[in-house]
Specification:
- The chain is of the alpha/beta class and 385 residues long.
- Helix content is 38%, strand content 13%.
- The strands form three sheets. Strands 1-9-8-5-4-2-3 form a seven-stranded mixed β-sheet, sandwiched between helices. It has a three-stranded antiparallel β-sheet with strand order 10-12-11.
- A hairpin with a 2-residue loop joins strand 6 and strand 7.
- The chain is globular, with a radius of gyration of 22 Å.
- The two termini are 17 Å apart.
Amino acid sequence: MNIQTKTTIPFNKPFSTGKEIKYIREALQSGKISGDGNFTKKCNALFKEKFGFENVLLTTSCTDALEMAAILLDIKEGDEVIMPSFTFVSTANAFVLRGAKIVFADSNLHNPNIDAFQLENLITDKTKAIVVVHYSGIACDMDKILEIADKYGIFVVEDAAQAINSFYKNKPLGSFGCLATFSFHETKNISSGEGGMLAINNKKFINRAEIIREKGTNRSSFFRGEINKYSWVDIGSSFLPSDITAAFLLAQLESLDTIQQKRNLIWKTYYQELISLEASGAIILPKIDDFATNNGHIFYILCAHEEERSALISFLKINGIMATFHYLSLHKSQFYATKHDGRLLPNSDRYSDSLLRLPLYCTLQKKQILFICKLIRDFYKNKKM
């Protein structure tokens, strides 16, 4: 085998549609490049038209959108918020900043999404919200989650950072919770480098969301001519991105279907090439419920244990392939370990220890995928010898 010492296939490579620079130039020529310009309005209109969200607000990140959600829900000291432990720190941080106690739920046995059937046991009279994370763009069991939330009068927030253009029973993710958040980080299916969005599905949050996003002022109403002057009326921060960011995002959004097709083809090629390893018991491949669609955001495999995964990562790196693990269970993080209630979350820990993400980006070529899969097969073949 030709052993390479330099990375030739990165984990991620940002995709350009070819229109990004054109749109950015148009934004510059318009004379308005701060937030809520023409390109922001175009993005908002396309998101609402395509996915049916009641309203959307672009933000500087998904983290900011989550922080807005926590403010909109009036999360206060002592409130409890249920969420999966297997998620990025931003999911929890947004609510911790408002004083909430995070109650971590375990993942499903068959995929990293929150186990909807254990939620009811975690609810107390202090529970204010359930935050679900659609890991790798695969839908959580929204019927069960909403049934429980409705029974106890609890808000549902969707962390749909990875879930653009994914669906649950033909309805787009991000349209189930009263609020939903999306990411347009460079690793996501469509990107603006950094960026995010808050989708608002309950009309009562629309006006206040605009205020919170504009530093707690009613500035947006002023620019629409609804009031004669604007003032500071609520808490908030500067959560809106520049119109240059929105110009970049619009080019990506207009090519969303093409991007999805490319990513799904890559995902399917990985699956077909590695299914023999799953059949032999060497690895476990992603499982997608019948109610969910796949947006090709992440392709992962599950190794037997952490040591095997580390060895495979090293083997791939030596051969020029960058693969990576994902989240550390938040209930075992340095910050939250002493705050967790002590419950064991074995599925979350299993994904933390064994999940390995493979390179996936639009320009990844089939011959590169075949090379990666051959290396993985060689690794397990040599492991048996």
